[in-house]
């Protein structure tokens, strides 16, 4: 489990995929979460999960930092996912 801070406008970079399942809890701010062709904006108090082997992308679309608690589950060790 990790807590990630995204300054305004920050992204995870290009859309990417990796083995595992991800669960996200938005603690502060507002982010755009995209997976495949599904796009949602989530805010503090919201949560979502997805199959990480499908291309995904996250961007802070708010005016303040976004703080996201992320838990990644995989049967294999994941190195440098974020």
From TrEMBL:
CDD domains, sorted: cupin_XRE_C
Domain of life where this protein originates: Bacteria
Pfam families noted in UniProt: Cupin_2
InterPro entries: Cupin_2, RmlC-like_jellyroll, RmlC_Cupin_sf
Limits of the Cupin type-2 domain: 3-72
Full protein name: Cupin domain-containing protein
